[in-house]
Each structure stands twice: as C-alpha cells, then as structure tokens.
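Holo prediction. Input below; ligand is fe (ii) ion.
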Amino acid sequence: MAASPSSTLVSPPRVDLDGEDTSTLVRGTPEWLRETLTSTAGEMARLARVILAMVVDGYGLSHRSDEIVAATDTNFRMLRYHNDNTRTSSSDGQPAVGLAAHVDGSYLTVLFQNDVDGFEMRTGDGGEWARVHSPGPDSLLVVAGQPLVVSWSNGRLHAPVHRVAVGGREDRLSCGVFLLPRRNLVVDAPPELVTVDAPRRFRPFEYSDYLRFKHAGGNGEDVLDRFAGI
Ligand SMILES: O=C(O)CCC(=O)C(=O)O
Ligand SMILES: [Fe+2]
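Structure of the complex:
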C-alpha cells in the first residue's frame, strides 16, 4: 500500500489572494518572508491571468479575454512533502505518494518548486506515470484544469491526472497559484468553439456546483464527464 497522503503533506489553508485579508498566508512568519510570499503569490497570479488570456486569444477569442480574465479568482497554496526514506516505495513497487492522483478544478495552476522533483503526470488514457523534472529554479509548471477544458476549448485541451511522489533525500517544497472561475460564473463553451465538427461536449454549469460535485465525487478524470458530459 502506498502511504496515506495526509502523513506526508503539510497543507496550510488555501489563501484567497483576491480577498481583503492575506495575513493568514504568513501568520507567524517574519516580515521579510511575508513580503516575499505576498509578492511571489501576486506575480504568479498575474502570470496565471496572462496565460489564460493567451489561451483565449489562441482560440481566436481575443475580444473576450478581458471579460474572462476579470471573472476569475486566485488562491495560493504552499506545500511541504516530508522526506521519509523509509517509504521510498510501497510493497507493490509503486512510489509512496505525497499527494494523491487528481485533476485540478482550476482553470489553470501555476506551480513553483524547490529542486526536489516528484510531480508526476499520467500519460494518455490511464497510461504510465511520467516524472516531470523541473528544468531549473527559473521555471514554473503550468497545469490545465477541468474548467479550462470545458469553457475555453470545448474539450480540445486536456486536464492531466497528476500526483506527487515522495521518497527523496530532502523535503519537497512547492507553491502554487490556482486561477479559478468566479464561484457563480456559468462555465460554458463559447459558441465560436462549437461547430458541426466539434459539437458541444459539456452542458453549461455554475462553477460552485461543479466544485460541490467534485468534492463529493472524487478526484478522478471522469468527474467532469459524470457531472457535465453530453
Ligand atoms: O505540489 C505539487 O507539486 C503539486 C500540487 C498540486 O498538484 C495541487 O495542489 O493541485
Ligand atoms: Fe494539482
């Protein structure tokens, strides 16, 4: 059996960067770190919005990008995966897992990590796990989430199943900005992306309803199809 995620994952509450109070981000941390975290999180959120606008533009919908980007929220999360050499792998040969396999419920997620790899994506439909090696400290990883698959690509983009494997010599540290549709936004494919050759793949839904369903219905790749697939 792989180790339970909760035994290795230190997950502070997510922080709403667009809300009034970001103090929970850094409660009890020194001023210099507070400033670093706040500005890092803010820049990552800005980048996430630029990338969303690029995706929207890329589908020929640049006239909509301001409106789409304005209807987003972000939150920031810091994660520490404790090194534990005793659990390098489980009895079935699988690596110990620090964060269980899931798909993201954000439009997109921008991740930054220290030099301890562990992020893995499942290739194709239920295929092998592939380790994503960080090319260096100047790099960020961008992961598409399910709302992006629905609304800004009508199924053309893929939201990968991913997880974090642990077992190295040092702790893995990562932080991520999650760019989310506003809770009451209706997530839907724009008419421009629905054609005879590419019929509508998902029914429109309110984002908060999707989140509720996802939290109750698990993290599997099929959540979106079960919830809104046509
Ligand atoms: O910590 C990581 O590298 C991945 C985190 C992640 O996938 C998530 O929080 O959704
Ligand atoms: Fe994720």
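The first strand starts at residue 9 and ends at 10. That is the main takeaway for now.
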